[in-house]
Amino acid sequence: MDKTYQPEQIERRWYQRWEADHRFAPSGEGAPYSIMIPPPNVTGSLHMGHAFQDTIMDTLVRWRRMQGHNTLWQIGTDHAGIATQMLVERKLAAETGQSRHDLGRDAFIDKVWEWKAESGDHITRQLRRMGASVDWSRERFTMDDGFYKAVQEVFVRLFDEGVIYRGKRLVNWDPKLETAISDLEVENVEIDGHMWHFKYPLAGGETYEYIEKDRDGNVTLRETRDYISIATTRPETMLGDGAVAVHPSDERYAPLVGKLCEIPVGPKEHRRLIPIITDDYPDPDFGSGAVKITGAHDFNDYAVAQRNGIPLYNLMDRKARMRTDGLSYEASAEFATRAARGEDVGDVSDVNLVPESLRGLDRFEARQRVVEAITAEGLAVTQQGEDGTAQPLVENKKIMQPFGDRSQVVIEPYLTDQWFVAVESLAKPAIEAVENGDIQFVPRNYENMYFAWMRDLQDWCISRQLWWGHRIPAWYDPEGNVFVARTEAEAREKYDLPPGIPLNQDEDVLDTWFSSGLWTFGTLGWPEDTPELATFHPTSVLVTGFDIIFFWVARMIMMTLKFTGEVPFRRVYVHGLVRDAQGQKMSKSKGNVLDPIDLIDGIDLDTLMDKRTGNMMQPQKAKAIAKATRNEFPDGIEPHGTDALRYTFLSLATTGRDVKFDMGRLDGFRNFCNKLWNASRYVLMNTEEADVGLTDSDIELSLADRWIVSTLQQTEAQVTRALEEFRFDHASQALYEFVWNEYCDWYLELSKPVLWDENASDEAKRGTRRTLVRVLEAILRLAHPMMPFITEEIWQRVAPLAGKAKDDGNESIMNQPWPRSEMDKIDEQAERDIEWLKGVIVAVRNVRAEMNIAPGKLLDVLLTKGGESDHRRLENNRHFLAKLAKLQSVEWLDNPAQAPLSATQRVGDMEVLVPMADLIDKETELARLTKEMDKQDKFITGVERKLSNESFIAKAPAEVVDKERAKLAEAQANRAVLADQHAKINAL
After folding, report:
1. 80-99 pLDDT per residue, tens
2. For residues 537 and 521, is the Cβ–Cβ distance under 8 A?
């Protein structure tokens, strides 16, 4: 083996070998175990969340494969409708100056497929770097022919059953992309906003007595008003108001309920009226307690409008500009006034309540014009300014603004015709599947989140106004009648349409969440009854983040139960979200994103700075981000290798919702890989050319041999139990402690007195060599699911010595049996004896450190005050003690009163004595200790002076004061230790 561990040299080589040898495909033997990878976007790059999640899945699959299961880890990518269309549109514009509309739909789709063929495998190449043992021979894409067939089948069947329908409802609308988007594609960002307060005059100049009271019922304000006051952050939407709502319990407005008020904007001669109604939605304690209801432009208002039969007036077009189509403002206002008086006016699609002067304006420009017009008319609520004059009441306040995560423009609630899934009938069996335990969430508390969402479902908008995606299998005749079928020919036959009637397919495509909802069964060949579907479905476990329990997990459960009669998976393992070391979400705008490939391969500071500050949406933040990056990574990021990164992720996989990524821990696990590498080199150097007990030769096991074999059994049981419980943090910790603390730090040292002793028997040496290689080989198999590359590399050298493989390189550790704990090999006596031995050695080492005795100086040691077991252990382990504790002699002292002046340590009831005479230069050591005590005294005096300063205590933050007190306590403790050592040496 190479002297140093160099992961970059082994990782690519081994992955290519595994893939070429088809190691990842199902074996066809054993109980099935399957996992479906959450399909990453075909446009995507591997981020920390992917790397974390893929590490967990690969660990599970490799572990179950070694247990003899017939494993399938299904790989595939999502077509990512919006992201892919945007990417190809930008590429097209940059290369040819054309838009997709210049090309036309079919030619543009051809361009997308060209891009996928050239560049769509970026993230799958990165998955290979992470060691993902997915079955590449079964790779799927959500737009491939077979999966497309499954999507069409589901749509048609649900439509025929009345579960899918087309209707006009409010959706999240992206005005830049001109499509509906899901809630998950909306980022709610806190921004500086305004709250305008306006007066809605009462119809006919009517007045009322407005009274405000305090909590005790005392009148605090009484005045006559001819208006009702509302507050809004979006004045442009006032044009589409259908009512003003107040709470039924709000006494202030009780006289107004059922009356009309006037919207204070628009041509005066056509100023329209709206009713004042009651609804439970308004909060009497928020603002004025009166809320304007604009059902076509606000989700809460939409619900109020639906409950109260208020018309929905659309004000904007697809680009969020004020509408220019429809009726004139005069005709529209007359139409809306009739509706306000209770008349049934029917369809209001052509009603355009945007005044002619505002038509065609951007919504934000229209907002400014509306505010100016209302203020100029004196219908803004006013307050007294600093100069004593009345000023319009405009609150500057933080508001949550929805932005499209792709387009970065403000999302508009928009009333439009879309396709929907009526989820109620699908939700009931999906809830029952979790209630009755057919599906179990790990941790269990996420079931509550699932139930909360499932019991408050809204119908699901599944259509998107894009070109790239699964085109909706619906056709329209010239009159707008819709015909749903798998093909146009099927539509004509199904609906008995004459050949002469022209049909046009729906222009929209399906939401990507619709197709990914079919992922577990669509990838296995459904709607055909394939062998893979029969073998691997339901799948064993889904690994996912909690943020998509509703968007993906719940929809998979609903769809899979509906079309297969089976649950999609038996268990859902829900992991936390990877954040930075401070617990902040990783984002480009924060400049704290870590690329897992950079952690594997390393990256220099300049390149890291370019990645973090280039192409920013908010370039003004670049300077601060650059400074923070220099401070955190002054020399860039060193390479760590895949195995160290994977082990770090697993150690962080707790049951919490946040995973704080720690670079220090990553450094520590790189050291762990180095430790395993160096330990293996030691084992090989002492065994490769020697007798390791492969034949039936006699062997003799030392106490250390029996102890490490016993401890291994317990570690095997711990790791297995932790993996079964999805406690990857516990599994990685148990293995780490065994390898580092027991095998490397103790057993390898305990092997030297046997291997390097010329007087040791051949049987003893053979027994220790065999134990060295067999325990190391078991360690490698235990570690392989977590650290696949380094374990394979070492195993190829160790396995033949352990009798586990031929020395021809044709076998792989990933196909070896998972270690199983053997209870008959647990030797509790050996474990107790070794703990005693370790205790004595540590005691002697502590004395050396405290008394500043050279590590190589041979010592005389006395043991006393112990029992018979201590006597026995001493006699049996003199050789180990002498070698590992560097002892010249070790004897039992029957009479503790006869002990010379010694440094003393306790091991249970027994005392370990190290006589001090002649060990040190007394005067030199006393002088050194005196100097150290003087240094501590000066430090203590300074801290005490600071803490006695009342001004410092009063002004300094509490954490600073606490830190100073901790410094004082530590210094005083150190001073006491030095004084104790001084007293002991002075007495010699």
Report:
1. 999 899 999 999 999 999 99
2. yes
pLDDT for position 617: 64
Distance CA 842, CA 838 (A): 6
Tokens 């005294």 map to which residue?
937
CB 782 within 8 A of CB 716: yes
Q: Which residues contact 406 (CB under 8 A, 6 or more apart)?
A: 82, 83, 86, 174, 177, 185
Distance separating alpha carbons of residues 652 and 665, to the nearest angstrom: 9
Asked whether 230 and 197 are in contact (CB, 8 A), the reply is yes
Query: What is the DSSP code string of 779-802?
Result: HHHHHTTTSHHHHHHHHHHHTTTT
Q: How far apart are CA 68 and CA 54, in angstroms?
A: 21
Q: 640, 600 in Cβ contact below 8 A?
A: yes
C-alpha span between 645 and 810 (Å, rounded)? 28
For residue 838, give the 3-state DSSP assignment.
helix
Q: By the 8 A CB rule, do 179 and 465 touch?
A: yes
- Short-list 78, 76, 89, 75, CA closest to 43: 78
Do residues 475 and 491 touch, judged by C-beta distance below 8 A? yes
Q: By three-state DSSP, how is residue 305 classified?
A: helix
Nearest to 320 by CA among 174, 131, 106, 506: 174
pLDDT tens for residues 502-549? Answer: 999 999 999 999 999 999 999 999 999 999 999 999 999 999 988 888
SS3 content of the chain, % helix, strand, coil (to 5): 50, 20, 35
* In contact, 304 and 310? CB cutoff 8 Å: yes
Taking alpha carbons only, the member of 512, 575, 503, 518 closest to residue 546 is 575
CB atoms within 10 A of CB 481: 12
Question: If you compute the radius of gyration of the chain from its CA atoms, what whole number of angstroms results?
Answer: 38
Q: Which two tokens stand for residue 880?
A: 């180990």
Q: Which two tokens stand for residue 671?
A: 């050291």
How does pLDDT run across 572-595, given as a tens digit for each residue?
999 999 998 888 888 877 888 899
C-alpha triplet 748, 749, 755: angle, nearest 5°: 80
How is residue 435 written in tokens? 């209630």
DSSP state letters, 196-260 = EEEEEEBGGG--EEEEEE-TTS-EEEEEEESEEEEEES-GGGGGG--EEEE-TT-GGGGGGTT-E
What is the distance between the alpha carbons of residues 971 and 961, in angstroms, rounded to a whole number? Answer: 16
Any alpha helices (H) in 586-697, and if so which ranges? Answer: 596-601, 605-613, 622-632, 642-651, 663-687
899 secondary structure, DSSP code? P
Q: What residue has token string 């790059």?
A: 45
State mean pLDDT over 805-827: 92
Task: Return the half-sphere exposure (C-beta side, CA atoms, 13 A cut-off) of residue 879.
Answer: 16
Pairing verdict, β 440-442 and 539-545: unpaired
Task: Identify any residues that bridge with 74 across adjacent strands, giving them in sequence order.
Answer: 36
Q: Output the pLDDT for position 390.
A: 85
| 8-state DSSP, 551 | I
| Angle, in degrees to the nearest 10, between helices 703-724 and 828-851 | 100
Q: Which long-range contacts (CB under 8 A, 24 or more apart) does 824-831 make?
A: 825/709, 825/710, 825/712, 825/713, 826/710, 826/713, 826/714, 827/706, 827/707, 827/709, 827/710, 828/710, 830/703, 830/706, 830/707, 830/710, 831/707, 831/710, 831/711
Say what the pLDDT of residue 759 is: 87
Residue 393: C-alpha distances to residues 200, 210, 282, 385, 449 (Å): 15, 19, 21, 9, 41
To the nearest 10°, the Cα dihedral for 628, 634, 639, 644? -60
Q: Measure CA 823 to chain center.
A: 39
400-435 per-position pLDDT tens digit = 999 998 888 999 999 999 999 999 999 999 999 999
CA–CA dist 523, 525 (Å, integer): 6
With helix as H, strand as E and coil as C, how does 474-533 read? EEECCCCCEEECCCHHHHHHHCCCCCCCCCEECCCEECHHHHHCCHHHHCCCCCCCCHHH
Q: What is the pTM of this model?
A: 0.86
